[in-house]
Amino acid sequence: MILDFSSQLDYLWALLPEVVLSITAMTILLVDVFRRGPRAEQSGTWVPAAALAGIVIAAMVTVFQLGFEAHTTTSMIAVDGFRVTLTLVILVATALAVLFGMDYLAQRGLGIGEYYFLMLMAATGMTLLTASRDLIVIFVAIELMSISVYVLAGLDRKDARSAEAALKYFLMGAFASAFLLYGIALVYGASGATNLGLVASELASGAATRNPLLYAGVALLVIGFGFKISAVPFHMWTPDTYQGAPTPVTGFMAAGVKAAAFASLLRIVGVGLAPAAVVWHDIVWWLAVLTMIIPNVIALQEDDVKRMLAYSSVAHAGYLLVGLAAGSALGFAASVFYLGIYAIMTLGAFAVVSVVGGDLDAGAGIGRFRGLGWSRPLLGVLLVVCLLSLAGFPPTGGFIGKLYLLRAAVGSGEGLLAVILVLSSLVSYYYYLRVIWKMYFEPAPEEAVALPVPGRGFRLAGALTVLIVLAAGIWPGPAVDAADAAGTGVAPSALVGGEQSPAPSPVSGGIQVN
Fold first, then answer.
1. Hey, what's the torsion of the CAs at 453, 457, 462, 464, to 10 degrees?
2. Within a 13 Å sphere around the CA of 215, how many CA atoms are in the beta-carbon half?
3. Which end of the chain, N or C, is more open, meaning fewer C-beta atoms within 10 Å of its C-beta?
4. Contact at 8 Å (CB) between 230 and 189?
């Protein structure tokens, strides 16, 4: 089906996943409101099912969009493989977050309808970010996503830490939005357009690349996205917000928000700012270096596992920036692959922390994980697989993802970035393996807190997480092929340097892993 966007109907076809998600969200909210009262307790059974049904329908519609083709390259909405791949990643992450959060909500008596409404609206903003080809639409999508997540972070009104997390996230998000909007205005002033295709055409002429407004605009855009992806030094809000927010929300933030923001950043750089690579490349390079080193060192001192995973999330933003700094089709593809596997393994790790954290007043200190592998085998296996994948051990998807990023960096002449990636990953082994050691090689404390038995939704999500993470490491071919196609679709023909044609993937390039 060819879309030429000459009518509003074409945009409706292009935005079908977002339409499905938003209609599902509004239906859940309205129906839940009218069911409040004597029958309110029954809403806990149908609301998650309705949310999952909407996500599944949105995923089916997204796959259907593979048959779409845009008649113009200057539309505000993309219908390419990059959009489809990243949208599916976000939908899978949202579905897992729904399943992982069911027990948590029931145990704490939090609002059922509000939680799923906000989660679906945040997912709508995230998927819109993956599809946006216009800076104004990107800003609208970021605000839709951010406002929903602000409220989710403060959903537990009985916990002062949740309110503090929401306030900090809101204040830092407002600053980030201001930087982002000002950067958009300056890029518009330098290029005369907000559409990424038109911006690229204007920059390719050469005159705009010498405009000081462009340099200032790109710097402000990088700062704005730096806050959203938690890149150093714009990560200050991350540990406190992640620690205070309800843990299922923390996992959703770490996975979905980062994936959506990175997807948008890749499209902006690969489509709109490609002719101005000299302006942004060095900034991204230094952000990658700082973001890989600093949080990994700080995480070594953390005894709270939830806070440790927050710093781990920041460090992984640095790994993802390596693919962007590589400036090649392989680098973009590597970032897409790593985004997908990162979202899944991060959600799984935070899901276990949500169970081990226990009651409202308890923390997720590392001592609470002693003997967990034997007392709760399901939780132990899930956390071990996710932590090993985060560290980059074979045969997990995290290993393939880091190998993918290393090949991209070396292939683009960024050998120093590759070395820093390896060394920073080695540093992270200590705090990941420390948790595993506590789980299997130290006895449970004498006064151990009795942990709740995970429900069917949690067990299903845990099994799917383990399956996806291991399948991506043992049989990565299909995921690598999808990432190659997606990355090539947004990476321009020439960026920073080196050969930009699709390079051999880790699977086909002489390293056989399946």
1. 160
2. 7
3. N
4. no
Number of domains in the chain: 1
Say how far apart CA 231 and CA 284 lie, in whole Å. 10
- Measured in degrees and rounded to the nearest 5, phi and psi for residue 79 equal -130, 35
Q: Which residue has the tokens 């151990």?
A: 448
**Per-residue pLDDT in tens (0 to 9) along the chain, 514 residues:** 666 666 677 777 788 899 999 999 999 888 877 776 544 444 557 788 899 999 999 999 998 877 666 656 667 888 888 899 999 999 999 999 999 988 888 777 666 778 899 999 999 999 999 988 899 999 999 999 999 999 988 887 777 888 888 888 898 888 889 999 999 999 998 888 888 888 888 888 776 667 888 889 999 999 999 999 989 888 888 888 888 888 888 999 999 999 999 999 999 988 888 888 888 888 999 999 999 999 999 999 888 898 999 999 999 999 999 999 988 888 899 999 999 999 999 999 999 998 887 654 445 788 888 888 888 889 999 999 999 999 999 999 999 999 999 999 998 888 999 999 999 999 999 999 999 999 998 887 766 666 777 888 889 999 999 999 999 999 998 899 988 888 877 776 544 444 443 434 444 343 333 3
Torsion of CA 355, 358, 361, 367, to 10 degrees: -90
Cβ atoms of 384 and 439 closer than 8 Å: yes
d(CA 341, CA 343): 5
| CA pair distance 186, 75, nearest whole angstrom | 21
Alpha-carbon span 7 to 442, nearest angstrom: 65
Q: At 155, list the tokens.
A: 């959903």
Domain, as residue range, for 107? 2-490
Residue 509 lies in a domain: no
Q: CB burial class (10 A; 0-12, 13-18, 19+) of residue 501?
A: exposed
The answer as to whether 282 is a domain residue is yes
Is residue 353 a contact partner of residue 306, using CB atoms and an 8 Å limit?
Answer: yes
Is 508 domain-assigned? no
- pTM of structure: 0.89
Domain-located, residue 430: yes
